[in-house]
What does this fold into?
Amino acid sequence: MDCCAPSNYTEEVRTNCPSCKNKGKNVQLITLKSLLKASALETIVPDTSYFFCPNSSCSTVYFSGDHLQSFTEDNMKVPVYQKNLGMDVPVCYCFNWTRERLLQAATTDQQPADRIKAHVQAGRCGCEVNNPQGVCCLGNVNAFVRGLNEV
Ligand SMILES: [Zn+2]
It folds into this structure.
């Protein structure tokens, strides 16, 4: 402990979204570096923890653990699945399975989730640099395909 640190110094990180108060998910800095537009990237503080807000009714995509910064889809190079209902938005970013493509696949005997899973298992995915949520998309793909089957 640094003896010169101010007595009220705290490393408390607030993991709840400043906009919607829901819990965010920690994302690696490389994800922000890959997916933020230059104008937003120029403002990030690399020592800070950043979190992803998965709440679809909240416009905040990323926020910093000190709550001094937040970014919306406008700051992103790509549309964000959780925040954007467009059919051309990827569910699986690495292998470009958009909602539209998954919908089309559902009418054929293609098995997108199995194909994606095989690529993931072969070590071909790059979720940390492609997917705004920074982690594997398979949960989203499975949930989306399940939703289609229920219609
Ligand atoms: Zn939020």
Residues 17, 19-20, 22, 53, 55, 58, 60 surround zinc ion (CB under 6 Å). The chain has two domains: 1-77, 90-150.
